[in-house]
Amino acid sequence: MTAPQETAAGNAAVDQSGSRQLRRVLLSSFLGSAIEFYDFVLYATAAAIVFGHVFFTGLGPGLAAFASFGTLAAGYIARPLGGIVFGHFGDRIGRKRVLVVSMLAMGLATTMIGLLPSSAQIGAAAPAALIVLRVLQGFAVGGEWGGAMTIALEHAPGGKRGFAASFANLGGPAGAVLASGAVTLVSLLPDRSFLSWGWRIPFLLSIVLVGVGLWVRSSVEESPLFRRFQAEVEKRRMPLAEVFAGYSRQVVLGLFAGLAMFGMMGIATMWAVDFAVHHGASRTGVLNAKTWAAVVMFAATVASARLSDRVGRKPVMIAGVVAMMAFAFPMLQLVGSGSALAYAVAVAVGQGLQGVVLGPYAAFLAELFPTRVRFTGASLCYQGASTLWAGFTPAIATSLVLAAGGGTTLLGVVWIGALVLCLVAVLCTREGRARDLPG
Q1: For residue range 271-316, what is the model confidence (pLDDT) as tens digits?
Q2: Per the domain annotation, does 5 fall within a domain?
Q3: pTM across the whole model
Q4: Domain count of the chain?
């Protein structure tokens, strides 16, 4: 070969290697979020239809549901702490190392929930152990999303950052489909068998997903942007201190910008399941509807992420939030109708709108922060928003419905008010689509 030919061949080999590595990174991010949402939807569904009967026996239906959703919230409280701890090490020593630890811890906690004895067997120790495992699960999840999103975004070329970062969210609908499908299958068992041992099977299967995820993640290389700025990062102060000192405004806006997406998640995939079943909708029909709604959400997430690379993150997110406002009251009416078909329409449209906001949300957060604190800053926003809006939404919604004597009007008013806050937060941020990623 001549020198120019050798150079061209070398460049082609580098490009091919880079494309292959990017595919591995995206697959790793996809699998991580799939496992995260598998665990999340699994726990949320079990909290709605199982845990009240297994771990909170002796309480009335309303109090049992409230207690079950309370354990869900306990895990969400741990998520920001996990985001801070994993973010600190991810911004100091690298993204890849912490992602292995977070995935392993996440899967082990979920598997152990499937092995947990009931309160009838060990008394009050059962709900106490459930809370401990839920907190461990939440702590691990707190580090997973930020690392998966950051490493995907930092491997991607500039014009595809939104789509690449969305892989940390794209696995979500896939995980939701797997979880909903698994619970739907075991729910076909007789009630006694389902509540005794059937519900445990999907939890135990989590360890299989984790094994696949760790195998893929082992071949992923460290983020090139992190390597470029690593020497500078090591000389700086703690990432968390720098985030609060220089980027507190971005943190606040990022927290409120996530309200629409996480609020819809808390209402559609958690609270509404319990509400619909208690109003006469069949349990199997509701779980089937959740499975198909996750497919709709997946398609909406892909489309909106790609669109955000063309028109920007803000226009897509604003359109999604406004559509949620318009659909809030119709959705609540459909959920409370007692019809599984009506619930299916409500959750399909609701999760489709959730996907519209979810698609650009990862890149939206990542572009608020420089590389040296991106893992910490984005994780703090995402996990803080998930704690405030998704973690407490089911309990808040249940309380508002109880306070209104069983009606949903008060819930609808509060929900729309929260969406207004989200809209203001998105409007107050700078568009990041065309910006360079600083060190």
Answers
A1: 888 888 888 888 778 878 887 888 898 899 999 999 999 999 999 9
A2: no
A3: 0.77
A4: 1
